[in-house]
């Protein structure tokens, strides 16, 4: 069976039940891709640098086989200074992206670059800002230079966020009033992470791009036109099961 590996940060990673309703788009991609196994290796707090240096790319490369896909989506953490994770967009960020691409190709797999969705930032006049800055442009340049398929989730998300506006985007991102959800009793206003509705639509867009580009056979997709109840469609692992799987993955990475 073909496998789709996901390398990315907190915008992609799967969340456990105690983090609900926070959801990464990699967690919802299997709603639309069913002819291939989706292995979500993304981790919160990862940049192109830290994902590689902590052995997570190496684990993927040990398991990936010819014909598999590697979706690569970073940028939200690469832009943060400190902690050994920061990369300059047209320097180390591009250098690391090229390494991911070359390593995947050396193993006979097919790399796909996915720009990060934009953060939710509006000024006092309701104009949307683009704090990711040059990182999407830097990824686009790598895709063009190396002839890698690019899924421009960033540009697509910007159009959606602008249409939804400052208030409408609160239903896409993790915005909760105090007492609205037991996991966040004091409420939360998170301009980076999505809830189910946002994650489902991001993964729908990515799946549609994978199909339209011929990166997976048409028969591998389902429900691309289906309207879901997002909160019910997302599956969360219990914390104990999530911790067990995480520890197993970490142990495999360290071998």
Structural overview:
With 255 residues, this protein is of the alpha/beta class. It contains 9 helices and 8 strands. The protein has helices at 25-28, 48-53, 56-63, 92-106, 135-146, 153-168, 196-212, 230-233, 239-254, and strands spanning 3-8, 22-23, 37-40, 69-73, 110-114, 150-151, 173-176, 188-195. It has a 5-stranded parallel sheet, sandwiched between helices. Helix 4 runs parallel beside helix 5 (135-146). The longest helix is centred in the last third of the chain and has 17 residues, at 196-212. The two termini are 25 Å apart. The mean pLDDT is 94.
Shape: globular
How would you describe the oligomerization state of the chains in this entry? Answer: single chain
Portion in beta strands: 5-15%
Strand order of the largest sheet: 3-1-4-5-6
Instruction: Estimate the mean pLDDT confidence.
Output: 94
Helix content: 25-40%
Radius of gyration: 17 Å
Instruction: Kindly report how far apart the N and C termini lie.
Output: 25 Å
Give the helix/strand class: alpha/beta
Count of DSSP strands:
8
Unreliable spans are none
Q: Mind describing the biggest β-sheet?
A: 5 strands, parallel
The SSE order reads EEHEHHEHEHEHEEHHH
Number of helices: 9
Please give the structural blueprint:
Layout: E1 3-8, E2 22-23, H1 25-28, E3 37-40, H2 48-53, H3 56-63, E4 69-73, H4 92-106, E5 110-114, H5 135-146, E6 150-151, H6 153-168, E7 173-176, E8 188-195, H7 196-212, H8 230-233, H9 239-254
Parallel strand pairs: 1-3, 1-4, 4-5, 5-6
Antiparallel strand pairs: 2-8, 7-8
